[in-house]
Amino acid sequence: MLDSEPIDSGVPEESGLTMELVDMLDRAAETLKEARSVLFITGAGMSADSGLPTYRGTGGLYQDRTTDAGVPVEVALSGGMFQRNPAVTWSVLLELANAARGKRPHRGHEILAAFENDPVYGFDRIWILTQNVDGFHQRAGSRQVIDIHGDLSQLQCARECGWEEHVTDYHHIDPDRLPPRCPVCNSPIRPNVVLFGELLPEAKLRRLQTELRAGFDLVVSIGTTSVFPYIAQPMIINARLGKPTLEINPDFTEVSSIADLRLPLGAARALVELERRLA
């Protein structure tokens, strides 16, 4: 069903798993098999298995970190800073883009795409709500994706003159001449992402609320701390309705206490193990 090679975790399949973990995986797979509609919520932990940095927690990009401009990363990546000094924002955007250069979707991304596109798994409706801005879900073949924070590969004029461009990376942007300028009106350009302090895109919020009203047999949270209410909301809704919830995360998060099942594993490893059981 999936013809690409799994990521090399350095650990043979099934090895390194305690009997308790094997039992938890079996139970999670059974819950997944019984579901016809599933919402997968993904965060930085999903991208981390492709080699991208996480944002919060130990070693995260935002953890006790200041930029060369002397401000925290979250301030540099704010809408207010972009308005005042877009060069500061762009210096961090280049860092994020450079970290993603040469990286690609891993087997976990491909498995979620297969769940959506391959009828052998028996799902009627699969959606992905992702905080990640790397576009890896779409590159892996997923189509029902709500990338609520946008996509770094979509560039546009900040003054909305209409110019926009899809890029594979930022290699053409000169780090000594920031911010990059619109070729039409010479205004600063920006990626189509939500910076801190900016509103979420209305169209994507409407799509999310439409799908939540339709309901999901199962909600799965993967690799996210769930600190934003709109990320935790789907798990909370299913829990209140008595519907199953599953969390995949090595660490405890804002939704760990309401998850019916928790798999303390990395995203790729857990999804590979679950897909093996479904296949």
Description:
The longest helix has 16 residues, at 19-34. This protein is 35% helix and 15% strand. The chain has ten helices and nine strands. With 279 residues, it is of the alpha/beta class. The protein has a six-stranded parallel β-sheet, sandwiched between helices. Strands 5-4-6 form a three-stranded antiparallel β-sheet, with helices on one face. The chain has two domains: 19-52 and 104-149 and 199-278, Rossmann fold (3-Layer(aba) Sandwich), CATH 3.40.50.1220; 73-102 and 151-193, SIR2/SIRT2 'Small Domain' (2-Layer Sandwich). α1 crosses α10 (267-278).
In short:
With 279 residues, the protein is an alpha/beta fold.
What is the topology?
Elements: H1 19-34, E1 37-42, H2 44-48, H3 73-76, H4 79-84, H5 86-100, H6 107-117, E2 125-130, H7 136-140, E3 145-147, E4 150-157, E5 164-166, E6 189-193, H8 202-214, E7 218-222, H9 229-240, E8 245-248, E9 261-263, H10 267-278
Parallel strand pairs: 1-2, 1-7, 2-3, 7-8, 8-9
Antiparallel strand pairs: 4-5, 4-6
